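Entry:
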Amino acid sequence: MTISDPKAFQSSAVKPADFDSFWEDTLGRAASVLLRPRLEPMPMRSTPEIEVFEARYNSYRGLEIAGWYARPRDFDGKLPGMLYVPGYVSEPKLPNDLALQGYASFSAAPRGKLRSNSVFNPGYPGLLVHNIHDRDPYGYRGFYLDALRAFDFLAGLDEVDETRIGVQGSSQGGALTLLVSSMRPERVAAASAGAPYLCSMMDSASLTRSYPYEEINEYLRAYPEREHAVRNTLNYYDIHNFVDRIVCPIIVNIGLRDDVCPPETGYAVFDQIGGTEKKLYAYENCAHDAGSGVGHAGVIDEFMASHLAPVRVGGN
């Protein structure tokens, strides 16, 4: 499943010659859609310390995307922002814990997720191989744009200090954290990516037989003649090919016993990160939790607080 020295792994992901122009065109198409941010108060989900809202915004191809927004009730001046991006199977969480830490916090639900699946819903499993034979209609094209637009949604709120916005998530959320940090390089102030998925994707499918990567193996068993087309598509979406643009302070955590997102690919993508203020936490006896069960959540909280200066909430 894994090689003897995961640090020695070399990714087979190749950045296509027109990678930059493809994404510039994609970003331009998305920019033509008005964001139209909407917030609806949710009193039953709010507390004396925080306010919770159901959020909506428009994204790539005009799809309406949902999310949860939470903020401290009492604050002076601007709030630091925190974007939380979801895993592959998990639904977006209520970000109340982040609001209690003193952040204007937004938990995004990209297309296919709960409350964002009325038009696009490939299912889980399903998203990873949705139109995987063609880079243009591939499912992650819109999904990636939804994550980027979620950042824009948060940055555009009146109470948010757009110079103090962090991004965090694990697994698919780790991949999306790296993506947003890459594509909004001058605007993300700090990032934390756990057990990053969607890195060296074709290699990952050969290094593990766990889902979601097993979806690729199943697809190629059914359509072996499409292997070249699949590899070509994934090269446009492989996070390995984005991260040289990252400039913000960033931490990455991986589990060396991870059979979902192989640690080899975590080392490889970390090496590609362009910023100089970066740190990798490799947890020897951890799997896909990537250290969350042995205290890494505290590492993330301390790292973010040091860069974003959250406000004090209640007695915290």
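DSSP finds nine helices and nine strands in the chain.
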